[in-house]
């Protein structure tokens, strides 16, 4: 906790339902810690703790860099996701969240969904991402990524137009397929790739798009590589293969390690930090928390473009990666905040 600057870590257990959960509140300088609930069968308690510490800290940076008045928090429920289905367990979890009195606001994450949050909402108000909320954030995330890509194009080519740009979208899931369709609709030369062959074929059919086999994306000559599938795709094995000018996509933790940001920069490839460009999801649940509408979230997500351009300019001025510029910006916001006390619910 001390090394990571975490404010609070709480362990919860409920013998009746078997709930075992850890909630980490990293930093509430800018507002209550908001972050999803991840359900995973961690090998050891230490692994679960490490994950929740890492993820909650990442949420602080994501919220700060998105100019949101929110802090960072995250929760893990330990157990086999297929067996964590009991409503009583989610009600118990809601009571756990509730006793943090609004310092932590929960939402969906890996293996937890809207239905689970509906149950959590029976026992706490400190939950977003319910069926009464603003709905699936994925199209808004895609909207933010679209504007982020435009900002990168502006920075690299001096024009933000996507028409005729060659853009490879990796992953045609909830975010990737919306992004790829938006890009194609604006005249981009979109090539798509997914391990799900049916998804690729359906998209290619509908949009007359080119397809790329999963492994070939890293060697594909293009203007923009947009990873929208899984994390760690820029790694020691792929970083020297990339034949693009820009890496900008929705995936979390695109870089296997931070040093890969430097490796990309040295190769003259602009990397848009995942946590900046994919903030549309957080922006959506933040809008829900603050009582905004879905249209407001779309508008705020579009502003990711200008925010990213500002960070690219800062990185150029300082001779750093955009990742370093984004981290520094988030830290400046935290340091400059008027309130350095714990946020009140
Ligand atoms: P999803 O699960 O709906 O889609 C992921 C897609 O990637 C699937 O179609 C899957 O078949 C494909 N895929 C998996 N491995 C692949 C590989 N090796 N090569 C090519 N395709 C592969 O997920 P999503 O909601 O679209 O999110 C995509 C990424 O964006 C994830 O990293 C997620 O964490 C991140 N993200 C999503 C949101 C959101 O609002 N959904 C917000 C922020 C970040």
From TrEMBL:
<dbReference type="GO" id="GO:0016639">
    <property type="term" value="F:oxidoreductase activity, acting on the CH-NH2 group of donors, NAD or NADP as acceptor"/>
</dbReference>
<feature type="active site" description="Proton donor/acceptor">
    <location>
        <position position="74"/>
    </location>
</feature>
<comment type="subunit">
    <text>Homohexamer.</text>
</comment>
<dbReference type="InterPro" id="IPR006095">
    <property type="entry name" value="Glu/Leu/Phe/Val/Trp_DH"/>
</dbReference>
<keyword id="KW-0560">Oxidoreductase</keyword>
<dbReference type="GO" id="GO:0006520">
    <property type="term" value="P:amino acid metabolic process"/>
</dbReference>
<dbReference type="InterPro" id="IPR046346">
    <property type="entry name" value="Aminoacid_DH-like_N_sf"/>
</dbReference>
<dbReference type="InterPro" id="IPR033524">
    <property type="entry name" value="Glu/Leu/Phe/Val_DH_AS"/>
</dbReference>
<dbReference type="InterPro" id="IPR006097">
    <property type="entry name" value="Glu/Leu/Phe/Val/Trp_DH_dimer"/>
</dbReference>
<keyword id="KW-0520">NAD</keyword>
<dbReference type="InterPro" id="IPR036291">
    <property type="entry name" value="NAD(P)-bd_dom_sf"/>
</dbReference>
<dbReference type="Pfam" id="PF02812">
    <property type="entry name" value="ELFV_dehydrog_N"/>
</dbReference>
<dbReference type="InterPro" id="IPR006096">
    <property type="entry name" value="Glu/Leu/Phe/Val/Trp_DH_C"/>
</dbReference>
<dbReference type="InterPro" id="IPR016211">
    <property type="entry name" value="Glu/Phe/Leu/Val/Trp_DH_bac/arc"/>
</dbReference>
<dbReference type="Pfam" id="PF00208">
    <property type="entry name" value="ELFV_dehydrog"/>
</dbReference>
<protein>
    <submittedName>
        <fullName>Glu/Leu/Phe/Val dehydrogenase</fullName>
    </submittedName>
</protein>
<feature type="domain" description="Glutamate/phenylalanine/leucine/valine/L-tryptophan dehydrogenase C-terminal">
    <location>
        <begin position="135"/>
        <end position="342"/>
    </location>
</feature>
<comment type="similarity">
    <text>Belongs to the Glu/Leu/Phe/Val dehydrogenases family.</text>
</comment>
